[in-house]
Amino acid sequence: MKSPKCGRLYDYRVPGTTYGFTYPPFAAVAMLPMALLGLHTAIAAALLLNLAALAVILRLLAGPSWRRHGWFAWALTACLLALFEPLRDTLSFGQVNLLLLALVLTDARLLATGRGRLAGVGIGLAAAIKLTPALFIALLLVAGRRRAAALATAVALGATALAAWVDPGASRFYWTRALWDTDRVGRLGYVSNQSVQGILARLGEPDRAVWALVVLLVLGVWAMRSRRAVAAGDWTAAFALTGLAACLVSPITWVHHLVWLLPAFAVLVRAGRLRVAGALYAVLCTSVVWLWFDDASGVDGFLGGHTYAWITLGLLLWLPAGQLRPGLRTGSRSTSTTTAAPVPAAPAIIPASVQTDPCCCRTAAATAGGVVMADWADVPGAPSEPTASTFPADVKPQSSSARASSYTAEPPPS
């Protein structure tokens, strides 16, 4: 937590910027093993961890049907994902959002398959590393999963206490000062901030009361739609809606934070909304918001400079949630019963005194055998539940020219 070169954890600044370490102290504890590696080795390790997390995310979103797509389809999916701007930035910046999303979706999988005994551990760890996933604890409460919510809260508090034991000073500084200083994260009006707060800041509305009111409206819509999704057993949609709401209500949501939209695209594909999913995905591959890097004023700036925020809001309002087809309910273990196979009737035994004609005997035996085969042919096989693919539609997005990064370039003067 301390280094003779960098001093205390929250004293460090990226050279040439005002950006410092912005995550809770437990994030630093979790990253301590990286300090044992050289710079290039640590970069390679971070890349491999992110790729592994992405594989887990795709596996969880695909569900039981993941094997039927084959390696070619998954390779094509990986190529399409490489165009997704939030994912590109996550990998290039070495961000942790993919790891957090994998932890959260693991809990979603446990809840969807009726194995909720350990559900909450992943959410708790994610919330201890970064505050945004804490909204998933609220989802568990909205869904009436109090045990899972309590477990997630206990894990988050336990991890936070561990960090406080490792470095009390850093923990005290974060929770009393650094947490409330948004300038450490970046300028609210910077075009990469695609949250409600970012929209208001670019509109010149500094009043926090307005922001709080809009946040309450967003959370009201989220709670209503998430409750309906959970009631229908659609945990994937409920978690997707929570990721969307978290991006909107967070004070700062950089473009690379929008990897939390991936579950929403999985829901769109599952619902057969391939054109909608493909169009929105293509837009998120274009880096279009950076066209308003210098000036987001005017009608074009209001619409174009906040494109990603509008997509997030639109998905929150109209994502097809709680519309599982019959037989695809994922809220609990399957309770369907299997029809018992009919027992074929034994062929009648003809007394020897009656079997006078050898031809008749052969005819009777063949007839009896045919009855048996027909009976067994009518036995249904094990039912298989159809599932939809979760990878995005095959689109041909256009990539934008090189643009400034929220972490690699100095923001324009206010």
UniProtKB/TrEMBL annotation:
Where is the segment annotated Disordered?
383-414
Q: How does it sit in the membrane?
A: Multi-pass membrane protein
Composition skew (Polar residues), residue ranges? 397-408
This protein's major location comes to: membrane
- Tell me the superkingdom of the source: Bacteria
Question: InterPro entries attached here?
Answer: GT87
Q: What is this protein called?
A: Alpha-1,2-mannosyltransferase
Give a Pfam family name.
GT87
The source organism is Streptomyces indiaensis
Write out the transmembrane intervals. Answer: 34-58, 70-87, 118-142, 148-166, 209-225, 237-262, 274-293, 305-324
Task: Enumerate the UniProt keywords alphabetically.
Answer: Cell membrane, Membrane, Transferase, Transmembrane, Transmembrane helix
Localization, per the record, is: Cell membrane
Assigned protein family: Belongs to the glycosyltransferase 87 family.
